[in-house]
Amino acid sequence: MIVNPGQRSEQEVGKSMNSYLAPLVREIQPSGIRRFFDLASGNKDIITLGVGEPDFITPWHVREATVHSLERGFTSYTSNSGTPELREAIGQYLYDNFQVAYEPSNQILVTVGGSEAIDLALRALIAPGDEVLVPAPCYLPYSPLTSIAGGVPVEIGTYAKDNFKITAENLLAKITPKSKVLILNYPSNPTGGIMTYEDWLPIAKVVEDHDLLVISDEIYAELTYGQKHVSFASIPGMMDRTILVSGFSKAFAMTGWRMGYVCAHPDLIYAMLKIHQYTVMCAPIMGQVAALEALTNGIEEKDRMIDSYNQRRRLVVQGLRDIGLECHEPQGAFYAFPSVESTGLSSDEFAQRLLVEAKVAAVPGNVFGLGGEGFLRCSYATSVANLTEAISRMGEFINKLKMG
Amino acid sequence: MKALSELKLKVLDLLREDARRNPELLATLLGASLEEVKTAIRELEEDHIIVKYATVVNSSKIDDEKVTALIEVQITPERGRGFDAIAERIYLFSQVKSVYLMSGAYDLLVEVEGRNLKEVASFVSDKLSPLESVLSTKTHFILKKYKQDGIIFEDHEEDHRLVISP
What CATH number has the domain bearing residue B30? Predict the structure, then answer.
């Protein structure tokens, strides 16, 4: 008889292995996306609008440069902070595109994706009980990572009527003496919301007045439509208070390379570097070679991809509106975030039935936290043909719902 | 030559990718009105900037596979009309698929298609070489087409993404 490994351990040690887990970790809820993943996987007929990554394969010149570097034997560790050439290139790129000046030698740290950077920042800043303010609906990892670091996540609602912008009023309502860090993610996953310079000013004032630090996850910075992204670090007075997190995944279609970076005041970078050097040592050298190639020769290709997202954004927003779903105008990232309230179904019911009955996968808004209920995240990082077919299937599905 | 409007350039890009995209779809993708897009297409057609809506065929997949050769042609230009007159005499043959005026070691690059090797060879010996201003020809047969006009014939790159990801 084959014994389930879990059972066997239980017999040996006399109690559930779960009881050994750190309570902090045991209590973390599994991602709500997981269930949908299991439902959708393996079904070839499904068109997916559920993917949080570009549909482009990393441009060939980036892949080719990496293959070449492997052939020449670049397989070693690098400096903990990343190769000097890459940090230099990142510094120049941020200055040229977002008008923020970071010193490559002590203000830029290359990380394993933006995800590691967020974890490092939270672990470097959070003491037990510190409150971390997170605008929601938001990218899933912020709250769990806050909890693992010992902090207390506090969600701030953002709403369709405000185009999912964070407002000073809603932020102030959640500030307590324990508030320490504000996490920002604009352009936003899942809402596609962005913040302009004028939108940022009142937020910056609250940050200043209440002595907060900001972790600004600007991974979608390149993906804005009609206007340039404004980095929170570029707002007067916010440079030292901001930990800027970004990476190569979205703009350069390099998700699988896990290449990110974090920029901040030298004291903060030094603290994060200490954790980074003991946990991952350095980001993989192959990824660093690829990232440098992307920054050196990949700007034109990047702009072409962004143009293509913009076209598909128009297609999907109009398509969703045409089939009767209310949809605010997403101005960043590659997500549309329509409301499904008019159908009378909850996000979860809608997404589940859409998947089973119409074979279209999308992510129900409720998994993204406060304010996400009633919405559906539709990624438009897929082909025009797929989008057209997905919209048509959704339209039929909604018509069927109306008929009862 | 004309400097095209941004809209026309974008329309051309989208039609180059897929000539069957209709004006409604183009208008949505580009955030323009249907009228603007229809006008842009009409003008592009009238100005012969859009010459034709053709189909790219991978002929190696069909039985009646044809033979294609690229022929380097050296010529003496004609007084007064340069290379154009002789180029025209060549490109009017229906067997000729394309003709380019080149810099470097030869003057014209001529793409010729035939049902078999012999047909192409006899085109070169009977039609092309005897032309008065043709000094020499060098014929290269194409063995396999990997990519044409930016289109890869056998694309092995697949979508490996997870169905749902955060």
Answer: 1.10.10
